[in-house]
């Protein structure tokens, strides 16, 4: 997974000083800004843009896209979505405090895992789409950024796996053929538990207990909602965390990275990594270019 070559943002250059926070991860960018009123053309960019309003004051906003005009008050549990390559004339009537998430189509496929690449679909534009699930996950990434990522980048990056699953997983995301179905609160609890404990040994019973449901119901409902089994999801989170750690810690041994990412054996790490990424960890490391900081 390549780090962003340039800063992904849709904040106009003349409003750059209004960006309060920006956190660059290996596959995505989280940003908070407050600016406006706004009435300008936003050009097509090679990345998706998901926006979430943080304040609760009355708002009127809208856009002209592909000859269609849409408007919204963008309630707190709604998100705005500008897909990669889309351009629009966007406006709103006052300074707005936004949390924004930017990521490329390749990063979405990457986070979903090898087995989901064929089902992710295209992300559809939405000026104000109701989605408690994506709102919840974006607020979690935003809160981690504001806290200074006290547990490192792994928390935000594991939340992004959940976000990708909600956006592009098995017809439950914002594809051009479907809307987003809010995730059952028990599944959300299971995801929270996995994100908080993926470095530690865990079993189905402990996840079900944290989710206040039976193991049978959790397995069935998790697969129906997320398009993968619970253990595939846990493995995906651990592999994604391992990849991020490999890029940040080029001198750490793969054994150390495997153990720090929650794998109980090096052989299990290799098998899971290859199943998810199509190559072994050692080959992935050889193919991943060092950052400029690593070369100094």
Search tags:
disordered C terminus; Jelly Rolls; 2 domains; 296 residues; six-stranded antiparallel beta sheet; alpha+beta; four-stranded antiparallel beta sheet; disordered N terminus; 11 helices; Arc Repressor Mutant, subunit A; 40% helix
Q: TL;DR of this structure?
A:
The chain is an alpha+beta fold and 296 residues long. The chain folds into 2 domains: 1-182, Jelly Rolls, CATH 2.60.120.10; 184-296, Arc Repressor Mutant, subunit A, CATH 1.10.10.60. The protein has 11 helices and 10 strands.
* C-alpha end-to-end distance: 21 Å
Number of helices: 11
Give Rg in angstroms: 19 Å
Task: List the helices and strands in order.
Answer: EEEEEEEEEHEHHHHHHHHHH
The CATH architecture of the largest domain can be given as: Sandwich
Topology:
Blueprint: E1 19-24, E2 28-35, E3 38-42, E4 48-53, E5 61-65, E6 68-72, E7 78-82, E8 88-92, E9 96-103, H1 105-112, E10 126-130, H2 132-146, H3 154-168, H4 185-197, H5 204-210, H6 215-226, H7 230-248, H8 254-260, H9 266-277, H10 281-287, H11 292-295
Antiparallel strand pairs: 1-2, 2-9, 3-8, 4-7, 4-9, 5-6, 5-8, 7-10
Give an account of the 3D structure.
It contains eleven helices and ten strands. The protein is an alpha+beta fold and 296 residues long. Strands 1-2-9-4-7-10 form a six-stranded antiparallel beta sheet. Helix 2 runs antiparallel to helix 3 and helix 3 (154-168) packs across helix 7. The longest helix is centred in the last third of the chain and has 19 residues, at 230-248. The two termini are 21 Å apart. Mean pLDDT is 83; it is low at 1-5, 114-121, 170-181 and 291-296.
């Amino acid at each position: 997974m390549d780090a962003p070559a340039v800063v992904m943002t849709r904040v106009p250059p003349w409003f750059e000083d209004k960006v309060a926070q920006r956190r660059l991860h290996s596959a995505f960018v989280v940003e908070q800004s407050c600016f406006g009123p706004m009435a300008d053309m936003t050009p097509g960019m090679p990345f998706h843009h998901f926006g979430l309003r943080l304040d609760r004051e009355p708002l009127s906003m809208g856009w002209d896209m592909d000859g269609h005009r849409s408007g919204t008050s963008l309630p707190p549990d709604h998100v705005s979505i500008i897909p990669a390559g889309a351009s629009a004339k966007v406006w709103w009537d006052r300074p707005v405090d936004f949390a924004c998430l930017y990521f490329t189509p390749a990063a979405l496929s990457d986070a979903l895992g090898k087995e989901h690449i064929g089902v992710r679909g295209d992300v559809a534009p939405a000026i104000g789409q109701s989605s408690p699930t994506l709102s919840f996950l974006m607020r979690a990434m935003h809160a981690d950024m504001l806290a200074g990522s006290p547990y490192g980048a792994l928390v935000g990056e594991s939340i992004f796996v959940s976000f990708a699953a909600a956006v592009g997983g098995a017809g439950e995301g914002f594809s051009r053929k479907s809307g987003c179905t809010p995730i059952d609160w028990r599944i959300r609890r299971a995801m929270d538990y996995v994100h908080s404990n993926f470095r530690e040994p865990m079993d189905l019973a402990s996840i079900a207990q944290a989710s206040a449901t039976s193991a049978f119901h959790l397995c069935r409902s998790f697969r129906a909602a997320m398009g993968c089994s619970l253990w595939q999801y846990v493995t995906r989170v651990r592999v994604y965390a391992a990849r991020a750690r490999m890029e940040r810690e080029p001198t750490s041994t793969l054994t150390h990275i495997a153990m720090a990412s929650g794998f109980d054996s090096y052989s299990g790490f290799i098998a899971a990594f290859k199943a998810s990424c199509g190559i072994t960890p050692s080959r992935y490391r050889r193919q991943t270019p060092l950052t400029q900081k690593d070369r100094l």
